[in-house]
Amino acid sequence: MMIDAQPLARWHAYIEAPDHAVLWEMLDPHAVFESPVVHTPQRGRPVVHAYLASADKVLGGPDFRYTGEWLAPDSAVLEFETEVEGIRINGIDMIRWNSDGRIVHFKVMVRPLKAINLLHRLMAEQLAAMKPAG
């Protein structure tokens, strides 16, 4: 089993120094994002980019850290922990990439329930702030 670690290395580099232009290039044009708080999968690079860029602003920061990593040839599951507004958040990022190394599917799962409720509110606020006025 040959594991392509390059896409995962790029993801970790992005987490260390978020650059939304780099994130855009990491995403396949037909990428899909599955949120812990939105029922339907979000499809296409622009919307996936908006969700991941917003998540970086909501979850990122000095407390965010990956605590576990499970790898397959074209995917990874990364467990994370952080604290936001005094609530400890535990979750996983399930990332799958294509043969070009671009992310094609990104699923986030979060616990506990109060963390999901907090993220629902904060992500809605962040996504609304990203939309152009008009």
UniProtKB/TrEMBL annotation:
Pfam families: SnoaL_2
InterPro entries linked: NTF2-like_dom_sf, SnoaL-like
Residue ranges constituting the SnoaL-like domain according to the UniProt record: 9-105
Domain of life: Bacteria
SUPFAM superfamilies: NTF2-like
Gene3D superfamilies for the chain: 3.10.450.50
Name assigned to this protein: SnoaL-like domain-containing protein
Species classification: Bacteria, Pseudomonadati, Pseudomonadota, Alphaproteobacteria, Sphingomonadales
